[in-house]
Design goal:
Elements lengths: L1 H6 L3 H14 L4 H13 L3 H16 L12 H13 L18 H12 L8 H18 L9 E5 L11 E4 L7 H17 L4 E7 L26 E7 L2 E7 L10
Antiparallel strand pairs: 1-2, 1-3, 3-4, 4-5
Length: about 260
């Protein structure tokens, strides 16, 4: 059907048809190739590129490497590269962005450049700076009515211009099912190892968790909130261990982790 629409130059109908086919069989390379070709022919193909990538990521159950990094262009390159190296977040129509990382080879080169700046020394002060920086970022963005996406922040073990940069990975579909969570966890472990991360912090809105819903049926001592209480789960991991906290607001001090 998509091919028929394409011949008639009914671009939107053809794209929707191919996308539905891809969602049924996301490993079908012929369908994916047709989508790529169609976006090249579509008069508005470039503007539809991001939405197409998102639908295909959701169909694959893959997390999204977030391009937003706190301060470092070098860390940003490595964060962007993580998606290309794992086959995630690769554009159907290539964006013309200077310095974009689009292959596994470029990912390895970006990591080599980043590591070439030298390693950081692990100190409690560095971890506290990381925790405070992420916590402050959450407070700035977690305003009434604002959309908060699941995201995992990392403190890389490499030196950068100021030595305090962080990077992050968005995990939009990770909590949809046990299978997606397992896949996302595997990717995050690999990404953390590549970045020689000293610490990580996962920030997950309760409203976006389909699995695991640990609060359902939990004893009052383990879940002192109402069952329908919305908020954020925050999980901090470092050499000192792992701590999980639920916050119904972002006014508490970071030391409560």
């Amino acid at each position: 059907l998509g091919t028929a629409y394409r011949r008639l130059k009914k671009w939107d109908d053809a794209l929707e048809s191919f996308l539905k086919a891809a969602e049924l069989d996301v490993q079908n390379n012929d369908v994916l190739a047709s989508i790529k070709e169609l976006l090249g022919e579509h008069p508005d193909g470039r503007s539809k590129n991001a939405a197409v990538r998102k639908r295909l990521r959701i169909a694959r159950g893959e997390p999204e490497v977030d391009k937003r990094v706190a301060t470092s262009t070098s860390a940003n390159s490595a964060s962007s590269a993580g998606g290309a190296a794992s086959g995630m977040d690769a554009p159907i129509v290539q964006e013309e962005a200077a310095g974009a990382v689009t292959s596994g080879e470029q990912y390895e080169e970006a990591l080599k450049t980043l590591k070439g700046q030298g390693e950081l020394e692990y100190t409690p002060e560095l971890i506290e700076q990381f925790r405070t920086k992420v916590f402050d970022t959450i407070k700035e963005t977690h305003t009434p009515g604002a959309e908060v996406r699941p995201i995992v922040w990392f403190q890389p073990g490499f030196k950068t211009d100021d030595g305090q940069d962080v990077c992050c990975v968005a995990t939009q579909a990770a909590y949809d099912s046990p299978e997606m969570l397992a896949q996302c966890t595997s990717f995050l472990r690999t990404y953390g190892q590549d970045m020689q991360a000293f610490a990580s912090m996962a920030v997950v809105p309760k409203s976006m968790i389909a699995y695991p819903r640990v609060w359902e049926g939990a004893a009052k001592a383990n879940w002192p909130f109402k069952q329908n209480q919305d908020g954020l789960f925050l999980q901090m991991e470092s050499r000192e261990g792992k701590r999980v906290r639920f916050s119904s607001s972002m006014i508490s001090a970071p030391q409560t982790f």
